[in-house]
Design a protein that fits this description.
Layout lengths: L11 E6 L10 E9 L5 E9 L5 E6 L3 E2 L5 E8 L4 E9 L9 E4 L1
Antiparallel strand pairs: 1-2, 2-7, 3-6, 3-8, 4-7, 5-6
Length: 106
């Protein structure tokens, strides 16, 4: 049996940092850490965040674009090897419960 290991392929990891508690109709700060975990740069990085219906997003840093469907979008020319970028945003939810925002990188 043999296993092929490919070294040096680009990889990007995203991790949420959220407040411990979310209050109805109160702004809550969220941070999405985007990190290149590989040993080489990743080019043309696009990070997208979808929030549940009814949730209001604001104060994005760096400023985010928005798609027609309300998805937040950040685009970077590159992420250097090991580089991490924090994407900050504020969410306000009209209902109780968890705020399940989805994030992905292309």
């Amino acid at each position: 049996e043999s296993v092929q290991v490919v070294q040096g392929e680009p990889a990007v990891r995203v991790r949420w940092k959220a407040p411990p508690e979310l209050r109805v109709n109160r702004p809550a700060p969220y941070t999405l850490a985007v990190k290149n975990t590989s040993s080489q740069p990743v080019l043309k990085v696009c990070v997208q965040v979808r929030v549940p219906d009814g949730v209001i997003s604001s104060d994005t840093q760096p400023p985010a674009g928005t798609t027609a469907r309300g998805v937040l979008v950040w685009e970077f020319d590159s992420l250097k090897a090991g580089e991490s970028r924090p994407l900050k945003m504020t969410f306000k939810s009209p209902t109780r419960g968890e705020l399940n925002a989805q994030a992905w990188v292309t």
